[in-house]
């Protein structure tokens, strides 16, 4: 009886099992619970006087600043402007990176020619290129879009190339055996095989594009969340700074979850 009971217990799923599975409801519950606990700790630390609230305002103070900014400082309009900038730059980066990455992986001569240059540029810090961007494009909207594109394209193109390299060679050989030409093999076999990984990498690099928003919007900007945060920083309005950061985080979280849901729906066979 004891042996049987122990065997049954061993077969029961454990949340601590190595690479174990969790239900969707459990994942949401654990995530929400952890976030609430973190906010409560933050609130307690801020109210306890252990830190100066000028540097670490409480969550309730940040929430109050956020509501005030929405009502009186057009924060939602600024958020819309920033979102539009990010999506324009990201779309341009994706439209360029996907075909170039596929060509780099499919044809060795293209990869040999472009990969050293892309590797060199992607390690350059974007903030260091702000002065050059202003010289080339001025201080208008083009500079902001260029900086966002710059922080995304060179990372994404190498991820696309890696996605194409991971397509099994057997798929290519079978397609050729069945009479497919190179164009058909790329379009109907290789691209479809790499598509799940490509969508996932697009989701990741979209997050990277958001991380360059503040850099892009401090260049003679008069709109956008970066502009709001930078203006509040000048006057040490920490609650407003953190409220702007929270808005970016919320937009990023919502976008990421929507793209995750799209990925699960589109690639149910994975």
TrEMBL record:
One of its GO terms (cellular component) is plasma membrane. Belongs to the binding-protein-dependent transport system permease family. Keywords: Cell membrane, Membrane, Transmembrane, Transmembrane helix, Transport. This is Nitrate transport permease nrtB. It is found in: Cell membrane. Pfam families: BPD_transp_1. It comes from the Bacteria. The keyword Transmembrane applies. It comes from Skermanella stibiiresistens SB22. InterPro entries: MetI-like, MetI-like_sf. The keyword Flavoprotein does not apply. It is a multi-pass membrane protein. GO terms for biological process: transmembrane transport. Residues 79-259 form the ABC transmembrane type-1 domain. The chain crosses the membrane at residues 86-108, 120-139, 145-161, 210-229, 241-259. Its main location: membrane. The lineage of its organism: Bacteria, Pseudomonadati, Pseudomonadota, Alphaproteobacteria, Rhodospirillales.
């Amino acid at each position: 009886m004891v042996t049987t009971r122990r065997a049954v217990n061993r077969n029961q799923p454990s949340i601590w099992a190595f690479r174990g599975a969790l239900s969707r409801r459990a994942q949401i519950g654990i995530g929400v619970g952890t976030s609430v606990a973190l906010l409560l700790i933050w609130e307690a630390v801020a109210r306890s006087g252990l830190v100066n609230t000028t540097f670490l305002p409480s969550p309730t103070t940040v929430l109050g600043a956020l509501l005030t900014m929405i009502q009186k400082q057009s924060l939602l309009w600024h958020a819309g402007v920033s979102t539009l900038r990010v999506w324009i730059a990201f779309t341009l980066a994706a439209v360029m990176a996907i075909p170039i990455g596929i060509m780099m992986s499919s044809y060795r001569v293209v990869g040999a020619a472009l990969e050293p240059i892309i590797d060199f540029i992607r390690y350059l810090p974007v903030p260091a290129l702000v002065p050059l961007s202003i010289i080339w494009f001025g201080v208008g909207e083009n500079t902001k879009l260029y900086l966002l594109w710059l922080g995304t394209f060179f990372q994404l193109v190498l991820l696309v190339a890696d996605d194409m390299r991971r397509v099994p060679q057997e798929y290519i050989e079978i397609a050729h055996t069945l009479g497919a030409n190179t164009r058909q093999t790329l379009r109907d076999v290789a691209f479809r095989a790499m598509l799940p990984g490509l969508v996932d990498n697009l989701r990741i690099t979209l997050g990277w594009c958001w991380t360059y928003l503040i850099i892009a919007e401090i260049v003679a900007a008069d709109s956008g969340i970066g502009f709001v945060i930078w203006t509040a920083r000048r006057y040490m309005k920490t609650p407003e700074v953190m409220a702007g950061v929270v808005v970016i985080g919320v937009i990023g979280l919502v976008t990421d979850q929507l793209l995750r849901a799209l990925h699960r729906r589109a690639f149910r066979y994975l």
